[in-house]
Automatic annotation (TrEMBL):
Name of the gene encoding the protein in the UniProt record: hemL
GO biological process, one term: protoporphyrinogen IX biosynthetic process
UniProt keyword annotation of Ribonucleoprotein present: no
One MF annotation (Gene Ontology) recorded for this entry: glutamate-1-semialdehyde 2,1-aminomutase activity
Intracellular or extracellular location(s): Cytoplasm
InterPro entries membership: 4pyrrol_synth_GluAld_NH2Trfase, Aminotrans_3, PyrdxlP-dep_Trfase, PyrdxlP-dep_Trfase_major, PyrdxlP-dep_Trfase_small
Name by which UniProt lists this protein: Glutamate-1-semialdehyde 2,1-aminomutase
Length: 438
């Protein structure tokens, strides 16, 4: 496959844009480097690059594009918003419509506030939790990603009861000391951390279903236990649902039928983003009324945004949720994902390549290993070189995946059986080539 234009554009981009990309996960650093593909146009489940090559896409722009690209209903909503003026700096009726739609789907939200990204949503939940509890520390779980604000780019210290260490240059150690990172799916670490730091812990924050070291379900009882430990300690529970809201069903991970005891796992605050912006920038956070009423202009916790709740993002979001309300859309994505994961596993087995697949409805992760992946350590302990090789073989056969062994594949409402057949054919060729290279 000729990608010479992408290579040229990459060289040019490097002169002007740091690393040639506007978000590090778009680079190919995690799969051995080189020029990423410069896409020119997208429609449905397909991309065309600057050289005219066509790809079947499973990246879905890291999650938001659940209806496929340029869905006519969403395009019409964006066009109308553009014609009406894209930004007012005043409230609009549209914001109430989307707020009601999100609240109806996720009942733990008494009140919401729209922001522009998942990072902002998470950042704001932490501010509000600190304002409400008068405490400063946060406990989070290893491998969960919560955006790029200072407090959540902190790695674990040497054990569950040690304070965090900065996970990026530019983060003061004093800030990292406000965070404790404990293992996912393991209540002992959380218990230990709360025993040591409990009086200072404003909130325990988690991806209730993990989307950032593969797709990983909480073990039965984990979320219930986590909520109980946090609440007994007077700490709030924050769910980061940026990648899981509206992903598995029309609602959040917290209302997904695969998780029981919805009342016992209800969070105090939820950070959201991605899907309900219909592909335009969006985030939101919300939760219990008395907690959200801490936010300005009602309360003392300040949070603001020039672009927040802009009519274009909100209109696209409403249209996207309307598409997702259609009968059987989640069932169809799941049906295709079952076909795809079944075929991938068969193909990998046929060529003796260890592969663990974690699938939750229409989303799944592929881990090159022969053990289960239930926490971050197990996700790290997988064959990154095998993934990188698979990624490149698939790309060369017209299949676009995320360039990281930790990221998921996402089905959209635009994928068809024909796409699955073509993907399985590419995978069979890729696994065969990988076996021959060994
Ligand atoms: N939280 C989670 C769970 C995410 O997956 C992401 C993005 N991948 C974020 C927060 C940050 O969102 P954004 O990139 O919109 O700032």
């Amino acid at each position: 496959m000729n990608r010479s234009t992408s290579e040229q554009l990459y060289q040019e981009a490097l002169q002007h844009i740091v690393g040639g990309v506007n978000s590090p996960s778009r680079s190919f650093k995690a799969v051995g480097g080189g020029a990423p593909v410069f896409m020119k146009r997208a429609s449905g489940a397909h991309f065309w690059d600057e050289d005219g090559n066509r790809y079947i896409d499973y990246l879905a722009a890291f999650g938001p594009v659940i209806t496929g690209f340029a869905h006519p209903h969403i395009t019409a909503a964006i066009t109308k918003a553009a014609e009406n003026g894209v930004l007012y700096g005043t409230p609009t009726a549209l914001e109430i419509t989307l707020a009601k739609m999100v609240k109806e789907a996720i009942p733990s939200l008494d009140k919401v506030r729209f922001v522009n990204s998942g990072t902002e949503a998470v950042m704001s939940t932490i501010r509000v939790a600190r304002a409400f509890t008068g405490r400063s520390k946060i406990i989070k779980f290893a491998g969960c990603y919560h955006g790029h604000s200072d407090l959540v780019l902190v790695a674990a210290g040497s054990g569950p009861s040690t304070l965090g260490i900065p996970d990026s240059a530019g983060i003061p150690v004093s800030i990292a000391h406000e965070v404790i990172t404990v293992p996912f799916n393991n209540l002992d670490g959380l218990r230990e951390a709360l025993n040591k730091w409990g009086d200072d812990v404003a909130a325990v924050m988690v991806e209730p279903i993990v989307g950032n070291f593969g797709m990983v379900m909480p073990k039965p009882g984990f979320l219930e236990g986590m909520c109980k430990l946090a609440h007994d300690n007077g700490s709030l529970v924050i769910y980061d649902e940026v990648i899981t809201n509206f992903r598995f069903h029309y609602g959040g991970a917290q209302t997904y039928a695969g998780l029981d005891n919805h009342e016992q796992i209800a969070p105090d605050l939820t950070a959201m983003g991605k899907i309900f912006g219909g592909g335009l920038p969006i985030g939101a956070y919300g939760g219990r009324k008395e907690i959200m009423d801490q936010v300005a202009p009602l309360g003392p916790a300040y949070q603001a945004g020039t672009m927040a709740g802009n009519p274009a993002s909100i209109s696209a979001g409403i249209a996207c949720l309307e598409v997702l309300q259609g009968a059987g859309v989640y069932e169809e994505m799941e049906r295709l994902a079952i076909r795809l994961t079944g075929g991938l596993k068969e193909s990998a087995d046929r060529h003796g390549i260890p592969l663990t697949i974690n699938r939750i409805r229409g989303a799944f992760s592929t881990h090159f290993c022969d053990h289960p992946v239930t926490d971050y350590e197990e996700a790290q302990d997988t064959d990154g070189e095998a993934f990188a090789s698979f990624f490149r073989h698939m790309l060369n056969r017209g299949i676009n995946l995320a360039a990281s062994k930790y990221e998921a594949w996402f089905l959209t409402t635009a994928h068809t059986d024909e796409d699955i057949d073509a993907t399985l054919e590419a995978a069979e060729d890729s696994f065969r080539a990988m076996k021959e290279e060994r």
